[in-house]
Write a structure and sequence with these properties.
The chain has helices at 25-29, 113-125, 142-153, 166-174, 189-196, 210-217, 249-252, 269-281, 298-307, and strands at residues 13-21, 49-57, 67-71, 77-80, 95-96, 133-136, 158-163, 180-183, 201-206, 220-228, 256-259, 289-293, 313-317. By secondary structure, the chain is α/β, with parallel strands linked by helices. 42% of the residues are buried.
Length: 336
C-alpha cells in the first residue's frame, strides 16, 4: 500500500528508513495470544526497530541529518515522536546514534538487540568462564551466532552449536563459531548430541525449548547454568506441551536454570555496546548479517526466521547508508 509522506507535527521527526531489524516476536504481535507483546491488528503497520536519517525535524534536540534508531516499522518513511515512550522499558524511545558508521545494520544486529541479548545471556546470566563447555541452540541465528563468539571470548574450552540443516552447520564451522555443529534435523541427532556432550555441559543457552532442551538437561555438569532465551519450538503450540523430563538433573548436578528478558537491562545498553565495539575493534567479534534488500522483502525476511532461511543477523535494507558516514572495521567485516 502506498500513500503520501506525511508532514511532521510539532515535536516530531520525519525519518528516511535505512535498515530494519526482524524478530520472532513480530509473529506474536499478530497472534491471538499476545501475552506481553504489543498488538498489531490486520491493516496496521508492522512494528519493528530500525535506523534512519532525519529529513525534517520539529524537535529541538534533533537536527536534519541525524542518524536515529527507533520503532520505525515496515515503511520507507516514518514520523516519530521522541518524547513519547511506549512503556517503562522505553522500547520505542528515539535515540540518536552518536558515532554512526557504515554499515548501519551493525547497530541493529551486532551492536543492537541481537548482540545485547547474546551478551546478557552469555556474559551476564550464564557467566561463561575459562574452560567451560558451552552448548548454544539456534547457533546460526542472530543471537546464537554472536553468543558463540562471546563464549569464545570468555574462554570457553569448547563451543557446541545446534542448528537446522547441514548448510548451517557447515557455516558455523567454516566461520569458526563452533568446534562442533549438530544438525537437529538429521537422523541420529540425539545420538550425536550424546557423544558431543558426553563430558558434561557447563552452560546451555537455549532459544528453542522442547525436546532439545530436555536432551541437553540430561548432560549437565556439576554447577551447570542453563539460560533460557526463548522457546521457539513450542511457543505456538496449544495446548502447551509438557515440561522437560530431565529437570531432576538440576538437583543432582547442583545446576541452575534461569530465564531473562533483555529489556530488564535496558539502562545498561550503552555499557554493553561499548564492550561489544571494543571486541569488534580488536577483531574478536565479526559482523555476520544476512541482508534482505528492499522494503518489499520484509515478509520474506520475517518468514526466514521460522523456516531456517537465514544465517546470522537478519536485517532488511530499505535504502543506502549515507556516503559521508565512516566505515567501521573493514578488515574484520564479513557481511553475507
Amino acid at each position: 500500500m502506498e500513500r503520501p509522506v506525511a508532514a511532521p507535527g510539532e515535536g516530531d521527526l520525519l525519518v528516511r528508513v535505512i535498515v530494519l531489524g526482524t524478530s520472532p516476536a513480530q509473529r506474536m504481535y499478530v497472534a491471538e495470544e499476545r501475552e506481553f507483546h504489543l498488538t498489531v491488528d490486520v491493516g496496521q503497520l508492522m512494528s519493528c526497530r530500525g535506523i534512519g536519517e532525519v529529513l525534517e525535524s520539529r524537535h529541538p534536540q534533533f537536527a536534519v541529518g541525524d542518524i536515529v534508531q527507533a520503532s520505525l516499522g515496515w515503511q520507507e518513511f516514518a514520523i516519530v515522536t521522541p518524547d513519547i515512550r511506549d512503556n517503562d522499558q522505553n522500547v520505542r524511545k528515539v535515540t540518536r546514534l552518536e558515532q554512526p558508521a557504515r554499515p548501519l545494520n551493525a547497530s541493529l544486529s551486532l551492536f543492537g538487540q541481537l548482540g545485547f541479548s547474546a551478551y546478557v545471556g552469555i556474559v551476564e546470566t550464564a557467566q561463561v568462564r575459562k574452560g567451560d563447555v558451552v552448548v548454544i541452540s539456534a547457533a546460526a541465528g542472530g543471537v546464537g551466532s554472536i553468543a558463540c563468539q562471546l563464549a569464545r571470548i570468555q574462554g570457553a574450552a569448547r563451543v557446541i552449536g545446534i542448528a537446522g540443516g547441514a548448510d548451517k552447520c557447515e557455516w558455523l564451522i567454516g566461520n569458526g563459531l563452533c568446534d562442533v555443529a549438530l544438525d537437529y534435523r538429521a537422523d541420529g541427532f540425539y545420538a550425536d548430541l550424546d557423544v558431543a556432550c558426553g563430558a558434561g555441559v557447563d552452560v546451555y543457552l537455549d532459544s528453542v525449548g522442547g525436546d532439545i532442551l530436555d536432551a541437553v538437561l540430561g548432560h549437565l555438569a556439576v554447577g551447570a547454568r542453563v539460560v533460557l532465551c526463548g522457546h521457539i519450538s513450542t511457543e505456538y503450540q496449544r495446548p502447551r506441551p509438557p515440561g522437560p523430563r530431565n529437570y531432576y538433573n538440576l538437583i543432582y548436578r547442583r545446576a541452575r536454570m534461569e530465564g531473562f528478558f533483555v529489556f530488564d537491562s535496558i539502562n545498561r545498553w550503552p555499557e554493553f555496546e561499548r564492550q561489544l565495539r571494543a571486541w569488534y575493534g580488536e577483531g574478536q567479534l565479526r559482523l555476520l548479517d544476512h541482508v534482505f534488500e528492499g522494503i518489499e522483502s520484509a515478509p520474506d525476511a520475517l518468514r526466514s526466521l521460522f523456516i531456517g532461511g537465514n544465517t546470522g543477523g537478519c536485517v532488511i535494507r530499505v535504502a543506502n547508508d549515507p556516503e559521508h558516514l565512516p566505515q567501521i572495521g573493514q578488515d574484520t567485516l564479513d557481511e553475507r
